[in-house]
Specification:
Length: about 375
């Protein structure tokens, strides 16, 4: 069985140890300190959170994913569904259904798992002020067992037309729930900064920041080597360094490439650098339709700019050398193209550098000779 996991939350033996971060986050949770968990996509923020709570044992996690929410109704219903799911696991479904009866929850059986499934009547529209009652219910749940409340991709709350009102209501309730640690996780730094460091924001200085960066390369390499050893595979040191480099030391992407290497190598084999090419080709076969769909959305100038980033890197994307290399006249046109690529979530900007959201999209462009 392939031991490499990506694209989902991992814990226990599948979680690459982060002792310093685990200890730090556990300390904040135990002292009911609100936390802003910051880090780029696929850095393992959610897995870190789940593993921390798992190790604390006497805490429960209420996890609410806010990715791509568009309305206050979306926010409220995701919170309700997360609460119902958590309480169902605790055997308290009947009580919570009664409390939320105005939302007309519907209980059914999932045809795939055979487990009870709860949905909220789509005809009931919730406004920001509905958060009052939902957060009161969260507090009631905490009275029975210690609760950790996590909002993932919290920056997407800025998508709401009434985001200021929603943030203000959330803050007004959360500030009085001093016994409950709230964790606000996000992968778009400038938007998270707007929420937590802008003096005009309701959440200004309301939580302590914890940064989730790349893993220590030496420790990560050892963790990966141990996983390969489960199949009696030995990884050459240079090959491991290249794997981590190609995936830009992003844990989720490194694990994806290692998963593909496992699939394209044999039991008891030694893995050298020449094993990486077939693994990348397997990833391309799986993902090429997505890459092509992304290219369809681009204008000619945006494509030139994207290929330029793949070939020359994104540290000096407005330099004369970059402009000459991509064949676009003027930095204003380059800047416009870059902004669009960021908007489409093909690239992101971090510490002044434009980077691919998916590093394998970058290597695919080079492989295809764009």
């Amino acid at each position: 069985m392939n031991p490499f996991k990506y694209g989902r939350v991992v814990s226990a033996d599948d979680f690459c140890p982060r002792p310093t971060l685990l200890k730090q986050l556990a300390g904040f949770i135990k002292s009911a300190q609100n936390v802003v968990l910051q880090g780029e996509r696929r850095m393992g923020k959610t897995s870190l959170l789940y593993e921390t709570v798992r190790q604390l044992k006497r805490h429960r996690l209420l996890y609410v994913d806010l990715l791509e929410i568009k309305t206050a109704d979306d926010l409220c219903k995701r919170m309700v569904k997360a609460l119902i799911s958590m309480e169902r696991q605790a055997g308290l479904l009947e009580r919570i259904l009664k409390t939320l009866s105005q939302l007309r929850p519907v209980v059914s059986v999932d045809p795939l798992t055979g487990q009870p499934s709860v949905s909220v009547d789509a005809g009931v529209r919730l406004r920001p002020d509905s958060l009052d009652g939902i957060l009161d219910l969260v507090r009631e749940s905490h009275k029975r067992t210690r609760l950790v409340v996590a909002f993932d991709e919290f920056q997407d709350i800025l998508n709401l037309p009434d985001s200021k009102e929603t943030l203000a209501i959330l803050r007004s309730k959360i500030q009085f729930q001093k016994e409950i640690p709230y964790v606000f996780s996000g992968s778009v730094r400038n938007q998270m900064s707007e929420i937590f460091t802008n003096p005009d924001s309701a959440f200004f200085k309301s939580a302590i920041a914890v940064d989730v960066g790349p893993l220590d390369k030496e420790g990560f390499a050892g963790f990966l080597a141990d996983k390969f050893a489960l199949g009696k595979r030995v990884v050459d040191k240079d090959a491991m360094a290249k794997v981590i480099g190609l995936a830009e030391n992003v844990p989720g992407d490194v694990q994806e490439l290692c998963e593909a290497i496992w699939e394209t190598t044999a039991f008891r084999s030694t893995i050298h650098e020449d094993c990486i090419g077939p693994a990348l080709e397997l990833i391309y076969a799986r993902e090429s339709k997505g890459y092509e769909a992304a290219l369809v959305q681009l204008t000619g100038q945006q494509l030139k700019c994207l290929v330029g980033l793949a070939r020359m890197g994104g540290k000096a994307a407005l330099s004369a050398a970059f402009i000459q290399g991509v064949g676009i006249t003027g930095p204003a046109s380059i800047k416009k193209a870059l902004n669009r690529l960021v908007q489409l979530k093909v690239v992101y900007r971090h510490e002044g550098e434009y980077k691919f959201v998916n590093p394998f999209f970058k290597t695919w462009l080079l492989w295809k000779n764009y």
